[in-house]
Structure formats: C-alpha cells, structure tokens
C-alpha cells in the first residue's frame, strides 16, 4: 500500500471519528484518540548493556506493532448508548432548570416534572444539601434521578434516609419514595492541639459532633475549659454514616465516637464506647473497665467557654465585689442546655434576676440551677435523665449578654460544679460483661494505633 493510499485511509477514519463525536457530544472517549495516535507506530529495543558491553556486538531489533482496526472500533462504539452520570448536592438557590444544567442535562420535560409533580417538587423542597444522582443519555435527556435525604419520620431520623427515585418509562416520568437504613462505616482520626479542640478537629476533618462527644468522653479526666494545653494529642475511632454507600452530607451524618486516647499535659487517658448486651445501656469506659460516666457531667453544655468561675468577682450590674455562686458559660443565644444528671424538675419558670430558670433535684440532697434561658423545654415534676435538653442559652433576667449561669447545691449550700463532677460516683461495669468488654478493647486498641500515625488526618477504613 502506497503512502498516499495510507494517508487517504487515515483521513477517512478521522472523518468518521469526527462524525461520531458530533453524533455523541457527551461521549468524547479517550480510546478513539488513543487508537488514532498509535497508528503506524514502530517499537525499537536495544539489548541491555552488560558491564563489558564495549566488547559485545550490538544488535538493533525493529518490530512493527499491529494497528488496531479503527473502523470496527468506531462501529462498535456507535452501537452502544453512551450516557452521563453525575452527582450533585442541592442548593438553596436551585431551580429545576439550574439543577439539571449543573448536572449536565438539558431536558425541558424533566424540568417540568420537577416543577409540577407532587413527588418531583420534593427534590428541591426543604433544606438544601440533598444528594442528587442523575443519569442522562448522550443527547442530555434525563433517564433517572435518585435523591437521598434525611428520613421524614421523626423516629427514623438519624438512623434512616429517604430515597426518591424518578425514572423515564415509556416517554414519561414515574416517581416513587422508599425508606432505607443508614449504614455505619468506621473512620479514624488524630490531631494535635495548637489553639483549641475544635481547631484541631477541623484540621483533621473530624466532624464537630464527634469533637463534642470526645469532650464528653474525657470530661471526667480533663477540664477542657481550663486544662487544655498546646501540644496535647488525641487519636479516635468513630462512625460515619452512608446512604447507599455514599457519605451523608446533611446534619447527623455521623454516628457515635467508638474509642479515643487523649494525652493532656503529658498524661494519657483512654476510653471506649461499650453497650451492655443484657441491659442495652451504653457508656464510655476506660480500658481498665472503669466507667467514664459519672453521676454528673462536668458541663451543662457540650462545649463552651467559661466567662466567670466560682469565685469572688465584680458584679457586672451591681458593680460591687461579691461571691459568684456558680459558673457562667458564654455561648450564643439558642445553644442547647442539658441536665448534668438524672433527677426531677423542681422549678421551671421565671425567677427575678435569673430570668427563665430551671432547677433540678438530684439524689443525695443535691440540686442544679440553669438560669437566663431563652427557652424552657421541661415542666415542673418531670423526670429527666443525664444529658437531656432542658432549654437554650439566653440573656433573660439580669444579664448583660447571652450566657448560662449554672449552680450546683448540696444540702442548699453552693459548691463549685467542676469539683463536684470529678468527685461524683462512677457507673460500674457489670461482672458478666467483662469478657465482651475485653474483646471490644482489644479491637479498638489496634485501630487507635493506626489512627495515632495519622496526625491531622481523618480517613474511613
């Protein structure tokens, strides 16, 4: 075959490739370009040189590589329906047209369905951040839309998700919804304190909800308000939640903290989450079986800063020095306030300078007070458990800014809440659960050893 004939054949193949690309604008494949680029290529090889190669004869090998049949490849590609699959998260500013355009689909019929159909409208209704997986053909016509969002039933939120599926069937769209359980995946992370706990967990891409659980896990060992030091280190094992194998982007997309180690001021504390298989109760325990859960939490909020401690101070309104009989926690209005222990609501309402206040009676003639609340979520006489939400931070009563005033009383006498929390009795591990507990500890120790090597990193197993 002459060089001229070969060039003519190549030109014809190129014209066919251009026609294929024009017919399938979304199916630009690297395989076609790769096939053309290797047309009439020859390979050259030289035998490797030995140490005395100067005395050995040299031989050059030339071998022609078989040229792929471009014509048949183009025919085979044309016979297949090439499509597009794209994942997007909904935005608060989205319209049906903008969502489809961002996903690479151009389908007025699909946009009309999302605007007019009762189920179709739910794609963009509610909060933004829903997971949208769209499949379209080569012309941009939508074939399927799958939307994953938090479960609609209150009792299933946090454990399930809603899957909305829209499919093109016989030239029209059909939609259906179903509920499926979220799947837990184990993740590891570690970090070093440079400025604050949340700054360190942010650097390691660890969710804030897990950081809060870590503060709770070690609250009986470390006062995170006063004792955190630059250079402190932590390693953790925790759960992330997935929907159909995809990470959950909405709030509540993380599970529980499973285990952790925290080195504070040179001393290392370890803890593991353990659920009693008989009673179903769960708590954090040290690796020696000592419970991290005490009768009282160290703080009535998951994480905040102390603005005024249990000591003499200059009263911000009276402008006189007097004993401050509680601890003030600075936090934005609306921040959740929780009960530090089990008990009964003794008072819930307005009380002079305290504004909206809740008082809880605990065992052993002990009581706690939560003042200046913007909202009260419990009623007098109600039985509550440790960690239960009582209300929200505010600045009602005599307050110069949003904060929580918290008091701890024993026999009517004011005590330093942080001292009481550390000295309170711990929950014990039942004897029958020790074997199961030791197996759990052995498992998480291996994971924590791996996590320790990942400073500033969070990754799923």
Task: Work out the helicity level.
Answer: 10-25%
Give the DSSP E fraction (strand runs of 2 or more residues).
35-45%
**Oligomerization:** single chain
Number of folding domains? Answer: 4
Question: How would you describe what is shown here?
Answer:
The chain has 461 residues and is of the alpha+beta class. The chain has four domains: 3-79, no CATH class; 83-181, Roll (Nuclear Transport Factor 2, Chain: A); 184-293 and 431-460, Roll (Nuclear Transport Factor 2, Chain: A), CATH 3.10.450; 305-423, Glucose Permease (Domain IIA). Helices cover 21% and strands 36% of the residues. The chain has nine helices and 26 strands. The chain has helices spanning 3-23, 30-37, 70-79, 96-102, 108-116, 197-203, 208-217, 417-423, 434-451; strands at 42-46, 60-64, 83-89, 131-137, 142-150, 160-169, 172-181, 183-192, 233-243, 246-247, 254-264, 267-275, 282-285, 305-308, 312-314, 321-323, 327-330, 336-338, 343-351, 355-362, 366-376, 383-384, 389-393, 403-410, 413-415, 457-460. The strands form five sheets. Strands 14, 17, 18, 19, 20, 21, 22, 23, 24 and 25 form a ten-stranded antiparallel sheet that branches. Strands 8, 9, 10, 11, 12, 13 and 26 form a seven-stranded antiparallel sheet that branches. A hairpin with a 4-residue loop joins strand 4 (131-137) and strand 5 (142-150). Helix 1 packs parallel to helix 3 (70-79). The longest helix has 21 residues, at 3-23. The two termini are 58 Å apart. Keywords: Hydrolase, Metal-binding, Metalloprotease, Protease, Zinc. Its cofactor is Zn(2+). Residues 323-417 form the M23ase beta-sheet core domain. This is Murein DD-endopeptidase MepM/ murein hydrolase activator NlpD. GO terms for molecular function: hydrolase activity.
């Amino acid at each position: 075959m002459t060089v001229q004939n070969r060039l003519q054949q190549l030109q014809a193949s190129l014209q066919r490739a251009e026609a294929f690309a024009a017919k399938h604008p979304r199916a630009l494949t690297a395989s076609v370009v790769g096939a053309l680029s290797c047309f009439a290529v020859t390979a050259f090889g030289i035998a490797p040189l030995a140490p005395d190669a100067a005395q050995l004869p040299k031989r050059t090998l030339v071998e022609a590589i078989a040229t792929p049949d471009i014509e048949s490849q183009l025919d085979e590609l044309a016979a297949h329906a090439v499509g597009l699959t794209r994942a997007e998260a909904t935005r608060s500013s989205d319209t049906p047209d903008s969502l489809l355009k961002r996903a690479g689909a151009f389908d007025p019929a699909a946009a009309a369905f999302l605007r007019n159909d009762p189920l179709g409208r739910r794609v963009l209704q509610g909060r933004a951040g829903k997971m949208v997986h769209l499949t379209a053909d080569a012309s941009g016509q939508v074939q399927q839309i799958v939307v994953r969002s938090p479960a609609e039933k209150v009792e299933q939120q946090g454990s399930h998700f809603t899957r909305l599926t829209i499919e093109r069937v016989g030239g029209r769209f059909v939609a259906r919804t179903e509920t499926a359980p979220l799947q837990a995946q184990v993740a590891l992370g570690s970090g070093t304190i440079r400025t604050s706990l949340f700054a360190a967990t942010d650097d390691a891409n660890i969710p804030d909800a897990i950081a809060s659980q870590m503060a709770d896990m070690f609250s009986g060992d470390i006062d995170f308000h006063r004792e955190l030091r630059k250079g402190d280190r932590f390693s953790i094992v925790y759960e992330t939640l997935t929907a159909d194998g995809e990470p959950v982007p909405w709030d509540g997309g993380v599970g529980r903290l499973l285990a952790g180690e925290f080195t504070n001021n040179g001393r290392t504390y370890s803890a593991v989450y353990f659920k009693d298989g008989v009673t179903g109760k769960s708590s954090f325990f040290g690796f020696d079986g000592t419970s991290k859960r005490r009768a009282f939490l160290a703080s009535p909020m998951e994480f905040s800063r102390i603005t005024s401690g249990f000591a003499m101070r200059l009263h911000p309104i009276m402008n006189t020095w007097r004993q401050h009989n509680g601890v003030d926690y600075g936090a934005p209005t609306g921040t959740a306030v929780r009960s530090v222990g089990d008990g009964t609501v003794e008072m819930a309402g307005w009380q002079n300078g305290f504004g909206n206040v809740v008082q809880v009676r605990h065992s052993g003639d002990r009581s706690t007070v939560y003042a200046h609340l913007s909202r009260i979520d419990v009623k007098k006489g109600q039985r509550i458990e440790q960690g239960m939400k009582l209300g929200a931070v505010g600045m009602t009563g005599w307050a110069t800014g949003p904060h929580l005033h918290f008091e701890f009383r024993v026999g009517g006498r004011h005590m330093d809440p942080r001292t009481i929390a550390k000295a309170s009795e711990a929950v014990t591990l039942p004897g029958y659960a020790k074997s199961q507990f030791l197996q759990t500890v052995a498992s998480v120790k291996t994971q924590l050893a791996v996590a320790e090597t990942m400073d500033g990193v969070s990754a799923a197993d």
